[in-house]
Amino acid sequence: MVDSHGSATIKDVAQSAGVSIATVSRVLNHSESVTADTRQRVLQVMEELGYNRNEVARSLKVRQTRTIGIIAPELSNVFFMEVVEAMERILAPKGYSMIIASSNDSVREEKRKLQVLIERNVDGMVVMPAGAEGEHFLTKALANIPLIMVDRRIKGLEVDSVETDNRYGVHQMIHALKSEGFERIGFIGGDPTIHTARERLLGYLEAMAEYGLPVEERFVLKKGAMNQGTGKDLLSRALGEHDHPDAFFIANDSMHLGATAYAMESLAQETLDRLVFASFDYLSYAPLLKLCHYAVAQPLERIGHEVASLMLKRLGGDRLGFPEHVMLRPDIKVMLANGGRPFEQKVMVAD
Amino acid sequence: MVDSHGSATIKDVAQSAGVSIATVSRVLNHSESVTADTRQRVLQVMEELGYNRNEVARSLKVRQTRTIGIIAPELSNVFFMEVVEAMERILAPKGYSMIIASSNDSVREEKRKLQVLIERNVDGMVVMPAGAEGEHFLTKALANIPLIMVDRRIKGLEVDSVETDNRYGVHQMIHALKSEGFERIGFIGGDPTIHTARERLLGYLEAMAEYGLPVEERFVLKKGAMNQGTGKDLLSRALGEHDHPDAFFIANDSMHLGATAYAMESLAQETLDRLVFASFDYLSYAPLLKLCHYAVAQPLERIGHEVASLMLKRLGGDRLGFPEHVMLRPDIKVMLANGGRPFEQKVMVAD
DNA sequence: CTGAAAGCGCTAACAT
DNA sequence: ATGTTAGCGCTTTCAG
C-alpha cells in the first residue's frame, strides 16, 4: 500500500480504491469525467493513505515546474524582499513557488545561480542583476524561460524590466527644496558605476539644469559605496568647505543614515539648525531622520505586483510588447514634523 | 539532436557523441570509470549542444531534490532573511536550493504552504512558526523530512530548534542598567501571547527578582502588537504616571523606534535628559537611537549557520541528539556615545 | 466514464 | 570501460 520509501503513490491509491491510476490522476486534476461516486471513493482512499501528490513526477511529465527562480545580490536587502513578498502574494495562489538564490553581488556567482535555476527547470526567472554585464542572460536555455529584470536594466539586453523611476524622484526632491527657497543644493551619492547611483546623479544634474540652479562641482560628491560611512564622510567633507550650501540631496537610505548620525553628534547647533536634507528611501526609521524634509519612497508593493503580473502574462505565452520596460513612479513624502512644506508636485511626462 | 521542446537531453548527447546514455550519465556524475578520452568527447558535445542537466528528472529517480523548504510569517522580516542568507552561504555550495514561502502570519496559510512543500518533495524544511499551534507538523509525510524550527519553539512538539537565548539577553540588560545605578526599571513589551514578547517579559521578571529590584506593576507595560505605535503609547502612558522610573527595558526594535521618536518630539528636555533605554535588537539605524545605553543584538549569522549545519547533519541521516534545541547567546552592545557604561557581563549557566 | 500503455529525462543495477 | 534495461510517479492519448 505504500512504496518502500514511505509515501503512497498514485498506484497505491488506485489499487486500494479499485480503479486504474488514470482515474486517480483524473481526480487529482479535477477532470470532469469522473463519476461523483468514484471520485468520492478515490478521495477517501487518498485521505486514508495520507497520499501526497508528487509534484516532481508531475513536473517531469508536463514539462513545467510551476516554479519561479529569483536571484538577488543580497537576500537581506529590505527593498528586494518587499518586492518578493508582493510577488508571492499573487503568484502563490496560482500554484507557483519561488526558488530564491543570492548572487552575493558577484556576476560570477550570478552566472552559477542562473545555471542552477535553469537545471531546475524554473518556468520563469526574476533577477536583480549584480552588475552591468548581461551576456550570460543570452544563453540558449533562457530563450524559452521568461526573464524579468528588477530595479536595474542592463543596457543592450532585450528583456522585460520593472524599475523605479529614479529621475522622477530626484526631480521632485529638487523641486521641493527649491520651492522651500533653496537655490544651492549639494549632492551626496555613490560611485556612478553603480546603476542607481548613476541614475540619481543624472537626475540631479538634469533637475538642477531644468530649474536653473547652479551646480557647484565642489558640492557634488559621488565617491564610494552607498553606505553609512560614505554618507558621513561626504557630508563632513562638504561641510568642511567654506561657504557650503545648507541643503543636500542624498542618494539613498544608508548614506542618509550615516550623514544624519554624523550631523547629530558632531555639528554645532547653529549648523545643524540650517541643515536640510531631501533623500531617497523612506523606511521604518524615517521618524528618526530629523533633518529630512522630503523623501522618495520606492513603490515596492507595486513593483512586485507589476513583476508578477508581467510574469504571469509571459508564462501564458503572451509576448505582446516584448521587451516591456515598466517604470514606476515613487511616492513623495513631505516631512511636516521636520519642517518640510507641501509643494505642488511637478507633472512630468514619461519618456 | 534536440527534443521538441528546445533543450537537449542526455539522449541527444549520447547519440551525438556515439556513446550510450549510461556513459553520458556517468560523466555527469563524475564517475571514475570513464576514459579521459570519452569523457572529453561527451563534454565537448554537451558544450556544442548547450546541454543542461534536467534536475527534475534526476530528482524523480534518486528521490531527493536537493531542496530545502522555508516558511516564515513575513518575507520582509530582516531578521529572518539574514538567517536565510547565512544558511544559503553554506547550503548552496552543497548543491541545495531554497524554496521560500510566506505564511503571512497565519497558521492556516502555514498549513497550506507546508503541504505545497511536501508535494514538492523538499529534502528538509526550516520554519519560523506563525503561531503556537503545531499539530500540522506531525503529519505522516513529515516523518521522513528533517524539520527545524527557528526563533520559536512550539511546546510539546518534538523537533529540532534553533533560537536566540532571549532570557540571557534580558538578564544582561537589567544587569547593565543596575550597574549604571538604576534601581527602578520599567518594562515596555508586547502581548505575552506572542512568543518573543512572553520570553522577554519572563526574562525581565526573573532578572528583576534575581537582582533584588522592585517590580512595579504600574510600569510593566505589555499590551498590543510589538510595533512603533505600541512603543509610543506605552512609553507615553508610563511617563504620564507620577513618579515614573527613568530607565526602561524595551522588548524589540519597532517599539524602541516608536518610543524614541515619541520621546524626541514630545518630551521636555529635562525629562529627555534623564530617560535611558536598554533594548532588544541592534540594527542599522542604531546610531540614531540616542536614548539607548545597551542593546541585545541577535546572532543572526550564527543562527543561520547552526540551522544549516544541523540540517546537513539530519539530511545525512544522523539523528543524534534528536530533538536538539540550540540556544544561541546574543551579543551585548554598549552604546558609549549615548552614555552607556561598560559592565561585567554576568556569567549565566545554561539550563 | 474508465483502463491500458507509452514515455517525460535520468540513474543504477546488471551485463558484457 | 561501456551498454542495456528497468523503472522513479505521473499525465495523456487512444481504446473501449
Compact overview of the structure:
The structure is a homodimer of 351-residue chains. Chain A is α/β, with parallel strands linked by helices.
Protein model, in words:
Chain A is α/β, with parallel strands linked by helices. Chain A has 3 domains: 44 residues, lambda repressor-like DNA-binding domains (434 Repressor (Amino-terminal Domain)), CATH 1.10.260.40; 130 residues, Response regulator (Rossmann fold), CATH 3.40.50.2300; 141 residues, 3-Layer(aba) Sandwich (Rossmann fold). Chain A is 41% helix and 16% strand. Chain A is built from 12 helices and 12 strands. In chain A, the strands form 2 sheets. A 6-stranded parallel β-sheet of chain A has the order 2-1-3-4-5-11, sandwiched between helices. In chain A, helix 1 packs across helix 3, helix 5 crosses helix 12 and helix 9 crosses helix 10. The longest helix of chain A is centred in the middle third of the chain and has 16 residues. Chains A and B meet through helix 4, helix 5, strand 2, helix 6 and helix 10 of A and helix 4, helix 5, strand 2, helix 6 and helix 10 of B. Chain A binds a DNA duplex (16 and 16 nucleotides) through helix 2 and helix 4.
